[in-house]
Structures are given as structure tokens and as C-alpha cells.
Automatic annotation (TrEMBL):
Gene name per UniProt: Rsph9
Predominant location category: other
Organism annotation: Calyptomena viridis
One of the protein's GO biological processes: motile cilium assembly
Family: Belongs to the flagellar radial spoke RSP9 family.
Keyword Cytoplasm included in the entry's annotation: yes
Record localization: Cell projection, Kinocilium; Cytoplasm, Cytoskeleton, Flagellum axoneme
Keywords assigned by UniProt, alphabetized: Cell projection, Cilium, Cilium biogenesis/degradation, Cytoplasm, Cytoskeleton, Flagellum
Protein name according to UniProt: Radial spoke head protein 9 homolog
Gene Ontology CC entries for this record: axoneme; kinocilium
Length: 158
């Protein structure tokens, strides 16, 4: 299988702790990468003290400079599901929905919105869908505190 090059591993080893410090995350995890035609998106997740709270996601094109991703909306996910094919590797690339699904584009146009979707929105929706489809938590890995927040169970060994 494909993995990270030594250069990318070294860059992540330097940039992820800086990301944790700059955004004041309790922990930062490398989520993975999505390859495009002209570039690759490297994705990281920032975790706060409450593990049940929504995670902050960031992406980078070079493993050094990171941009925060907005949370996915239902509309974003629905639009991204209509797109087929590979990512381009350019977050500002715009897909024209009129070429893909004329009916959906017409509904958006009537609603006062442009019938285009940026690749960054597609990336957000794709990450959300992957997490929803395959994200798991082993029983006993997390505990709920008396204050209501969810934390990792320090005694969990599974």
C-alpha cells in the first residue's frame, strides 16, 4: 500500500505539534490523505478536552501550512454526493453542478445560489462521509465524567 514519504513524515512531525500549540488543541491526530490529480490533501484532526464534541479538521497541501475546515452541512454533503471522479488537488477549483445534474443546479439557482461547488466543500463532505461510514470507538475506550464531558479511559488497554 501507499504510505507517506520520509519528507512528509518529517514535515508532519514538525508541523503537528505546532498546530496543537497554535490552535490550543489537547491532541492532534493525522487523519490521512486524499490524492488529487494535481495535488494531495493531508488531513489532521484537532481534539479538545471533550472527546464527544465535534472535532476540528484541518488540511494542508504540503504538510506544513494548515487551513481550518468548516463543519460539514447536509447541503454540502448532498451536493458532493453528486460529484464523481477524482479530486483536482486545488481547493479553489469549482465544479459546475449544471454540467453534472441540471435539476439540482436549477433548484439552487432558483434559491438564489450559484450552481457550483468548490473542491474545499467537496473535501469537507468527503471527510465527513468517510468518518460516518467507518468511524468506531471500542466499548470502554471512553468514560463520561460527572461534569458531562467525555474523556479517554486511562485504564483501557484494548
Amino acid at each position: 500500500g501507499a504510505g507517506l514519504s520520509p519528507e512528509n513524515r518529517a514535515a508532519l512531525g514538525v508541523s503537528l505539534p505546532l498546530l496543537q500549540r497554535d490552535y490550543r488543541f489537547e491532541r492532534v491526530l493525522f487523519w490521512g490523505y486524499i490524492r488529487g490529480v494535481r495535488g494531495t490533501y493531508y488531513i489532521a484532526e484537532g481534539l479538545g478536552p471533550d472527546r464527544a464534541a465535534p472535532r476540528s479538521r484541518l488540511y494542508s497541501l504540503n504538510c506544513l501550512d494548515w487551513s481550518l475546515l468548516t463543519p460539514a452541512t447536509k447541503e454540502m454533503v448532498a451536493q458532493a454526493e453528486q460529484l464523481k471522479g477524482r479530486f483536482q488537488g486545488d481547493p479553489s477549483f469549482a465544479y459546475n453542478l449544471a454540467e453534472i445534474n441540471a435539476e439540482a443546479a436549477e433548484r439552487l439557482f432558483e434559491g438564489g445560489k450559484e450552481p457550483v461547488i468548490k473542491e474545499e466543500a467537496r473535501l469537507i463532505a468527503t471527510i465527513e462521509e468517510i468518518d460516518r461510514a467507518v468511524g468506531i470507538a471500542p466499548r470502554g475506550a471512553f468514560v463520561k465524567t460527572p461534569l458531562g464531558s467525555v474523556q479517554e479511559n486511562r485504564h483501557f488497554e484494548g
